[in-house]
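Let us practice reading a record.
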Amino acid sequence: MRRTFLQDALSFWYLGALIFLLLISAGMTFMAQDRAAYMRAGAVMKAAMVMAVAYGALVARSLDA
């Protein structure tokens, strides 16, 4: 099942979105001038983490089936 998830087009878009969010968060943190900018970068990082955990749960659930 893991091969199915890592070879379909949706997985590549999903993982690409995760990497994009991580890069955006890193750039926002690097360019931050005030606390509000750091907080926005943290929110983007949290969104990326939630997406990664959801994808991991989906893959784990598919391995059980």
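A brief commentary: The longest helix spans residues 35-64.
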